[in-house]
Amino acid sequence: MNINCIAVDDEPLALDIIKAYCAKIPFLHLAGTFSNAIDTLEYLRHNTVDLMFLDIQMDELTGIQLLNSLNNKPFVIFTTAYDQYAIQGFDLDVLDYMLKPISFERFVKGANKALEQIQKKPNLNASEKQEKQAVSKPNTFFFVKTETRIEKVIASEVLYVEGMGDYWRIVTKSRRIMTLMNARGIEEILHEPEFCRVHKSFFVAIDKIEFVERKQIKIGELLIPISETYQKNFFDLIEKHKMM
């Protein structure tokens, strides 16, 4: 059995060590290494892994914040130089907690523990995986990168998202956040049935719609156009919310 894994650490030497250790263990396949949480989140939106070797103390987002932001969590082994997070780590149900500097013997022990737990995990066929994803809880919050910092956004507070050139503007009742992200990234965060794309430049929160008239959506003070490309999917979604 092969374990598909990634390593996340802002120290290049630490990543090199994990890469070298993984190369010595036949059942570990290191799919990628990342030096920050934002790139890791972007990768995990499009890829599935079995195991993540995760540092805790990192700039912008810590390993714990990264882990808390994931809906579908892989097995996690914390790799850190600080022992004060051990209790919190096990509260988060992580698989193992390895203190740096990590010896190869200790790494093998953690890898074997991962193998044992992953082998116990029931295999899901493709249809079961799709069904599980369909009933998974929506994101309650997410993080986006602005020019100067990482902003936490509560999903239920979002009114709409508007494309503005290379940027997207996330609008809530209390603030407006500009982030450099592609449309696919927005769709991965704000997806149906809570949100819907209605135009190449707009995503809307379904529960924030005041009314729909003449292919326009009223949210707050804004009238948002519904383009032909997205109107069928939008009205099909609205139909599901109609009172019978």
Describe the structure.
- This protein has 244 residues and is of the alpha/beta class.
- It has two domains: 3-133, Rossmann fold (3-Layer(aba) Sandwich); 141-240, OB fold (Dihydrolipoamide Acetyltransferase, E2P), CATH 2.40.50.1020.
- The chain is 33% helix and 30% strand.
- The chain has helices spanning 12-24, 37-46, 63-68, 86-91, 104-120, 126-134, 183-189, 228-240, and strands at residues 3-8, 28-34, 51-54, 75-80, 96-99, 141-145, 150-154, 158-164, 167-172, 176-179, 195-199, 202-205, 211-213, 216-219, 222-225.
- A five-stranded parallel β-sheet has the order 2-1-3-4-5. A five-stranded antiparallel β-sheet has the order 10-9-8-12-11. A three-stranded antiparallel β-sheet has the order 13-14-15, with no helix packed on it.
- It is elongated.
- The model is unreliable at 124-137 (pLDDT under 50).
Descriptive tags:
single chain, 244 residues, alpha/beta, Rossmann fold, OB fold (Dihydrolipoamide Acetyltransferase, E2P), five-stranded parallel β-sheet, five-stranded antiparallel β-sheet, 8 helices, 30% strand
Task: Write the H/E string, N to C.
Answer: EHEHEHEHEHHEEEEEHEEEEEH
Strand proportion, as a percent range, falls in 25-35%
* CATH class category label of the largest domain: Alpha Beta
Structural class: alpha/beta
Strand order, main sheet: write it out. Answer: 2-1-3-4-5
CATH topology of the largest domain: Rossmann fold
Number of helices: 8
The CATH homologous superfamily of the largest domain is termed: Response regulator
User: What form results from the Cα inertia axes?
Assistant: elongated
Largest sheet: 5 strands, parallel
Could you tell me the number of beta strands? 15
* Beginning-to-end CA distance, first to last residue: 51 Å
Residue runs with pLDDT of under 50 for 5 or more positions: 124-137
Please state the second-level CATH architecture of the largest domain: 3-Layer(aba) Sandwich
Helix content: 25-40%
How many discrete structural domains? Answer: 2
Mean pLDDT equals 85
- How large, in whole angstroms, is the Cα Rg? 21 Å
